[in-house]
Amino acid sequence: METLKIGILGSGQVAKVLATGFLRHGHQVKIGSRDPKKFDEWKAKSPGVQTGTFEEAAEFGGVIVLAVKGTAAESIVKLLGDRLANKIVIDATNPISEAPPVNGVLQFFTSLNDSLMERLQKLAPQARFVKAFNSVGNSLMVNPQLPSGKPSMFICGNDDAAKRVVAEILDQFGWEALDFGKVESARAIEPLCMLWCIPGFLRSEWNHAFKLVRS
Fold first, then answer.
1. DSSP reduced 3-state for 149
2. Is 29 helix (H, G, I), strand (E, B) or coil?
3. pLDDT tens-digit profile of 71-83?
4. In what order do the strands lie in the sheet with 63-66?
5. Is 43 left (phi over 0), alpha (psi -120 to 50) or beta?
6. 3-class SS at 14?
7. Which regions of the chain does DSSP assign to beta strands (E)?
């Protein structure tokens, strides 16, 4: 695929892993945080990556990756406002609450009839949100090597052209992209994070991914 300018929002492991993955595949990357100094040590080990504020990363990228804690996602989207207009925004967030898991099951601050991505889309109606990368741990996000072959990544969003771009990225990153419809489908895709985490919390098993098997 063509070289993309990627703006990544976040300073945690998910943001850093995805930034490294995009760089490895030849894309231009600027990663942003409220405090860009957080990247100083990591940047020295990641040649080629640019760092800056959330605003600078959003302005840089033609494709934006939202990779922050779910509890912070709405405030960041509000902060960026029109900077996200007409941009493809890969939403890797999950609405995980601050409460601890119950018997290995994460607690969400959304309901079954709501999703975090729907809230974000309402806050930035001109942004082209696509849900992706939320249903697997960061160690497997870029070109996972699993015995069962290429795993499946469930995506959704209202903009079909944006989903095609994200599907190309996922293919480059070693995933089968499965389009599960409009933004409301995030109500089903976000809880896959809960399901993915249960074996980890209960048995310290984190090396797995989902795969859709067809007849």
1. coil
2. strand
3. 999 999 999 999 9
4. 50-53, 28-33, 5-9, 63-66, 88-91, 128-131
5. alpha
6. helix
7. 5-9, 28-33, 50-53, 63-66, 88-91, 128-131, 152-155, 176-179
